[in-house]
Amino acid sequence: MNQRIAKMKPASMSNYDDPNIRVSTLIKFLEGAQLALEARGEEDSAVRFECFKEYLLNDYKMGSPLLFSKSAIGM
């Protein structure tokens, strides 16, 4: 007995399944977190977000993997 070959299509991926994130989106998140923490008076925590944002803006090379760096967290 012969059967028809099943039609296959790849599963679609939603935006939530994407392991990548745009650097611009991450920078906006860091800015928002920094401002929220400053508004609550948590300056020490806000500085860490600011340091990471500055690292992405000034030292990170677009397209390269994001690896740990002490300068990214202000050390």
Q: What is the ordering of alpha helices and beta strands?
A: HH
Shape: elongated
Count, helices: 2
Helix content: 40-55%
Radius of gyration: 21 Å
Kindly report the average pLDDT value: 83
Give the oligomer, counting copies of the same chain as homo and different chains as hetero: single chain
Strand content: under 5%
Structural class: mainly alpha
Q: Can you give a write-up of this model?
A:
It contains two helices and no strands. The mean pLDDT is 83. The termini are far apart. The protein is 44% helix and 0% strand. Helix 1 packs antiparallel against helix 2. By secondary structure, the protein is mainly alpha-helical.
SSE layout:
Layout: H1 23-39, H2 43-58
Helix pairs in contact: 1-2
How would you summarize what this structure contains?
The protein is built from two helices and no strands. It has 75 residues and is mainly α.
Q: Keywords for this structure?
A:
75 residues; mainly alpha; 2 helices; 44% helix; 0% strand; elongated
